[in-house]
Give the backbone structure.
Amino acid sequence: MFISVIILPVLSAIIVGFFGRYFGRYGAVFIANFFVIITCLISWVLFYEVIVSETTVYICLWEWLTIGVLKLQWSFLFDALTCTMLFVITTISSLVHLYSIKYMENDPHIVRFMAYLSLFTFFMIILVTSGNFIQLFLGWEGVGVSSYLLINFWFTRIAANQAAIKAILINRVGDIGILVALLLIFQNTNTFDFGIVFSLIPYLLEETIAVTFFEINVVSCICFGLFVGAVGKSAQLGLHTWLPDAMEGPTPVSALIHAATMVTAGVFVLIRVSPILVYSETILTVITVFGALTAFFAGSLGIFQNDLKRVIAYSTCSQLGYMVMVCGLTNFSVALFHLMNHAFFKALLFLSAGSVIHAVLDEQDMRKMGGLIRLLPMTYSMFVIGSLALMGFPYTTGYYSKELIIEMGYANYNNFSFFSYIMLVFGAAGTAFYSIRLLYLTFLAETNLSQKTIQYVHESPFLMYFPMLFLGFGSIFVGYIFKDLYIGVGNTIFQNSMLDGENLYVIYILQAEFMVIILKLIPIIFTVLISIFTYILYSKYEVNMLQISLKYFIMYKFFSKKWFFDVVYNRIFVLPGLVFGNLITFKLIDRGFIEFFGPTGIVRSISNKEELFKRHISGYIFKGVFFMVINLLLYLNITLYIKTELDITLQLLYIYFSFAMWSYFNE
């Protein structure tokens, strides 16, 4: 049963990908959905078996590779962390598969799409079930490749090509950090097994590594490399630019990437390596600050976006900042709880956005919508539920984890955590603003749709609406149902899978629970006030971004250009890289040095000497016989002088000089 969770998705990818055309589009879609739904049901059973029953399962299948002291095994670890991620991944993936049946119904390449979705699910499962770092890295890279294939699914679109290349290149930067961390781990422990590495980390606290003229702590270097990888995958500040552009893929892909797979991989790795992170206070501080800044940064950018999917994408970036920030405060179980809650309401928002886009002839600009509440009432209801959960409205799923994370920032009582508290409060205000703005422009404002579009608009079919309904239920109740299981005081289910810093987790929970009531209410008050303000601003005063851009041009340009991150990267890295690649690597090295001294140069040189070779071979027998006799005598004399047989190198040299002499005599 445990292994079937891993095998079924890859079987689905292989069967549909290689033999889907023999089954037909309906047969291939049925096979993909059947395998993934069975995987989902099994993962629910494992959730009960491992988490509720508090058991941990470690399976070693066979030895993978043995080189010296390095022994790699195909091993799988099923603990509370793994089974939580399996529950999230397979549930969201199965719903996305169902949703895609109708959403991609008219696409001629739906079979390939289903194969990619199953492959994506498989690699994410490999990532979360791995029992060692190499297996984890295999899943990590597989998720990156799958995301490239899905973002670039409509490969005839230039924007999709550019977005996919951007995503995989930026993630390569993060992968460098992961690779450096893995090399340091193996150098100091001679193993990649999680259990052995985590148990040896306390003995490496005094070890250092020389970097130029500085001595840096090995554990801090390992933590920093792992964090860089998480920054790339989870789109934190600095390496976040690929995430909004990834919206060029089909909407079901966006739901899967943002809710359950790609972007959650970085947060998962931070939680998995928590027994390492807690020993580096400096890196924990960096993680805290980066997470808080990302939450505020993405919240400020979502306000100025007009693309429906990009607004939700920036909300993902902001919510990931919450998770990373609380990991920096060593409250890893809270981060995991928010990851699970976020998966439900974020998948709901993306699938609801897909329902809107599907209904309005693939239009994504919110300014060209409006009035859809009367035409798409069920989709509007789902959008409201997802937006309220995203804002952390009381007693929705997002409230139970998001508000606790903000309170945790204040309850840690240090400068960086208080800074994080302030950033998260402002981030929550930004979330409320762009959520209400999205709802108003899309559903409540006066319509800007064309007559043709209005005549076409229709509510989603059942296979699209059922996953939204399921996720809507989860967006309301999942947080309440699992609150005590994940963040309740006295909870022991995670004691073998993560390390909440120095047994202070209970203290932080209690401090957050009994902090001053006004501080607990500030985020909610901000959310409610900003929501009311946004609705009045757009409904009564009918403000639009054109008016704001004219009146506050500098501010509008700064935020609409995404804090100029893309501009800076293009000028500092992209353009110099292109110039260097053209002038140095291409013209000087490839077309110059390598071609001159490589095969092309040799062929060209031989072609130029062709006439010379022809003159050397005269064809007269007496010259050839004379040359053979002279060479035989010389060879015998040299052999007798050395008193041994000539080795192969001397023989080759001798043949070369003989040929030169022959050429000389034949001139």
